[in-house]
Amino acid sequence: MEWQTTIREAAPLSGVGLHTGNFCRLIFRPAPANMGIRFIRTDLPDSPAIPARVRYVVDTTRGTTLGIGKAVAHTVEHVLAACAGLGIDNLDILMDNNEPPATDGSAMPFLKALLNAGIKAQPHFPKRYLKIPEKVHYRSGYAVYTAYPSDHFEIRCAILHDHPMLPKQMIHLKINPETFLNQIASARTFCFEHELAALRSMGLARGGSLENAVVIGADKFHTNKEGLRFEDEFVRHKVLDLLGDLSLVGRSLFKLRVEAIRCGHAHNVKFAGMLDRSAHQLRKSKEENKC
Ligand SMILES: [Zn+2]
What pLDDT does 242 receive? Predict the structure, then answer.
C-alpha cells in the first residue's frame, strides 16, 4: 500500500510573479492527509484558501489562475507541477500576494525547496490515484488529447508551430520523481518575440525577463547567458505545464498515459475536467456495485 505524502517542515521562497510583477513571499507548509493542495492568501482578511482543483479555475490566459471570490492565485501551474512531479498529495501554499514567484521560469526552484523540506509519508492514508475506466479523448481545433488507463505515468507531447525557430518538437517519457527532476523540472517558460507587445498591453508578463523566460525571435533565441537548457526545452516546458494543470484533478496522476498535441492551458484545464468526471463516474459505479 502506498501512503499519501506531504513535506516534513515549512519551506519559504520569494520573488516577483511572472505576469503581475508583484513581489510574493511563498511558504510551503505541511498539510494533513486528505486535504489536497491549497493556496492560502495570507494577505487577505481571514486568509482564504483556494483548493487546487479544476472547478476553481477562473482564467487560462497565458497561465492558469485559480480563484474564489476576490481571492485569486495566478500562474499556479509551475508550482503545482513540482508537487505533482514529486507525488506530493497534501500541501498548503501560503502566499502574501496574488502570484507565486516566477523564480527562473521553471519548476526547479520549487522542486528544490520541497526536496529540502523533505517528503514525508502519511501512514494509514492510502494514496488516491486518478483512475479512468477507459480511454478519454479531447479535440478542439488543432489541440488533441488522449488519456489511457495505465499502471505508470507516461506522457507523449508534441508542439507544432508555424515558426522557423520552432517548427516541431516531440517528447515521450515515463514520469516519476527522478525523470521529472532530470528531464522536465528545469525547462523554462517561453514566448515569441512578436507576442511581447500584445502580452504587455494585456497587462501580462510584467515580471518577465530573460532571467525567467526564453524569448523566441525571428531568427534566434533570446536567453540569459546560460543559453537553452535542452535543445527541446520548449516541449519539455509544455509537459511541465500539462502536469501542473492536470494535477488540478486533485489526485495522483501516476496511473495514466497521456498523449497531447498542441496543448495549452485552456485545453489542459478542459481535459483535466474530463478526466475528473470520468474517474468520478468509475468510483460511483464501483460503489453502486458494492451495494
Ligand atoms: Zn509554463
Answer: 98
